[in-house]
Amino acid sequence: MVDRKLFPHDVAIAAILKNEGHYIKEWLDYHLLAGVDHFYLYDNDSADDYAEIIAPYVAAGLVTSIKLSGGSAQYAAYNFAVRDHRFHCRHMAFIDLDEFIFPRGTVRSIGEVVDEILAAHQASGVAVNWQLFGSNGNINADFSRGVLERFTRRAPTDWVVPIPKRDIPGGNAQVKTIADPRRIAFVGNSHFPVYFVGNYSVNERGGRVDSYCNEPVTAERIAINHYNVKSRAEHAIKVSRGRADKGTVTASNAREGNCINDAWFDIYDRNEVFDDSIISYRAARAENFSIETEADRCRRMTHALTETLSAVAEGAASDLETALTCRAACSYLRGHSDDVRLKIFGDAALAVVVKSLDGLTLSEAQLFISELPNLLASTSPVANELQLAALQVVEQMMDFMREHDYWKDFADLDHLRRLIKIFGK
Q1: Among 92, 308, 351, 361, which residue has the fewest nearby CB atoms (within 10 Å)?
Q2: Is the predicted pLDDT of residue 387 greater than 50, yes or no?
């Protein structure tokens, strides 16, 4: 297992947003209290004061804000987050700005609850069920109060309803995922990632979840409070904005049920159960809240890096994930620290990567291949050795794909093999 002290962040959120200025501060502040320590926010052409509002969080190193223009940008945002930051956080959650991750019945952090579930069931992600909140009868928007205070009534815990025109489970059956990003191959759905071979998500009880929904609904230990409709006026604004995974609302896609439309308000405006427990949780978490400073983070990571690389130099075994995390830690620290040892550490970490390539599992080989563009750009003295080792891994993978008739994967790997050879000339 990788030393958690090697990661800049413990739990991060990747999210795409557009014109969320009314909501972003409450959402950030809540999740910071709940144990999230970084946010990768992809701004999809916002025209409000979003950038102004998050500026203090960016300055404090809590938010990385990235511009991402155009329609249907959500999956691109999630894949960029995994590609660029998989070694910068132990866990990554993929949620929207109307969703709040809520550890229920405890004052523990999100990371502590997720760790407990993953460790008990040897899984790579936790599929967390929605708990959908209604309008509380509000017609107009009242931005003088936060979402958590204004909307305190929800659907029954196990409420499930087919999504209009699509005949698939909606309501609280749907999940969002908190995952180990080093196990993710790609994200092609806002509710769940596709993992490298042999990895999967579980619900809070340990049941395997391989899709966008989990039935029966489980929400005893952790849930996502989803403020889907808010007031009637706010829902109308949401309809006009369109969906990040589908683009702008049109008459055609609204009829097909592919975008949130007016009919959704009537279906999802459920207010049967009074539930303000998330407010009590937030208050309890605030009592001992603190944020790690950048200086403390760099000291922590440098110490862990020194210990890990020293142990390998003295003969300790190292797995690929640890080696890649060490290299990523060096890159991160070089942008935040003037420690003269970091160049040497970076070369040593790359040498450990090469050393760890013998006897890879299929999942590890997939992770290695996903990191090749970053690795092959290195000017380290071991770059040539890395290129030869990479060719060997790719050719072994090609043999596997050929034996199992995975011809698309075989062809993709053949393209990669030829590129490595050209790159290494």
Answers
A1: 361
A2: yes
DSSP, collapsed to helix, strand or coil, labels residue 377 as coil
**Range of 339's domain?**
294-423
Q: Are residues 156 and 301 in the same domain?
A: no
Same domain, 45 and 193: yes
Is 90 exceeded by the pLDDT of residue 251? no
Nearest to 125 by CA among 205, 181, 185: 181
* Confidence (pLDDT) at 260: 59
Average pLDDT value for residue range 307-329:
94
Question: Are 330 and 394 contained in the same domain?
Answer: yes
Contact, 281 vs 55, CB < 8 A?
Answer: no
Angstrom CA distances, 409 to 187, 320, 371, 395, stand at 17, 22, 17, 12
Peptide bond preceding 169 in cis form (omega within 30 of 0): no
pLDDT for 274: 98
Which of helix, strand or coil describes residue 41? strand
Asked whether the beta carbons of 35 and 11 are under 8 A apart, the reply is yes
Confidence grade of residue 250 (pLDDT, cut at 50, 70, 90): very low
Three-state DSSP string of 78-125: HHHHHHHHCCCEEEEEECCCCEEEEECCCCCCHHHHHHHHHHHHCCCE
Angle at CA of residue 33, ends 303 and 216, nearest 5°: 105
Residue 261 has pLDDT above 70, yes or no: no
**Co-location of 83 and 223 in the same domain:** yes
141 and 183 together in one domain? yes
Residues 401 and 418 in one domain: yes
Q: What separation in angstroms does the CA of 325 have from each of 243, 329, 381, 417?
A: 34, 6, 19, 24
Q: How many domains does the chain divide into?
A: 2
